[in-house]
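Homework help board

Subject: predicted structure for assignment chain

Our instructor gave us this sequence and asked us to write out the predicted structure in token form, then describe one feature. I got the tokens but I'm not sure how to describe them. Can anyone check?
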Amino acid sequence: GVVGAFIPLPLAVRVAVAIVVIAPLGLLLGALMPIGLATVAVLSPHDKQYIAWAWAVNGFFSVLSSILATMLSMTLGFQALQAIGMAVYAVGILALMRTPAPRHAR
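My token output:
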């Protein structure tokens, strides 16, 4: 497999390959929170309160998801967990895409 092909290589090469493979996805997925916060800030007259709530919800679900991910991976397997994760991100992206465009930026 792919992993087996890299095992004999030096550690530095394996680390570099891991960064090249994982970094683009991490940057893409990591950009969704700031984009969502910026959207909430522009669309709402209560931007500070909604941003605080968004951070609180993000923190809550970050803790909950780490526990759930462990339990679900042990019961359903990693492929099912990956499919669930992709579905959750897809719902978030669709929700962001359905958010109305701001009439004016502040």
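Reply (TA_rk): Your tokens look well-formed. For the description, you could write something like this. The helical segments are 2-6, 11-30, 32-43, 47-75, 78-97. That's the kind of observation they're looking for.
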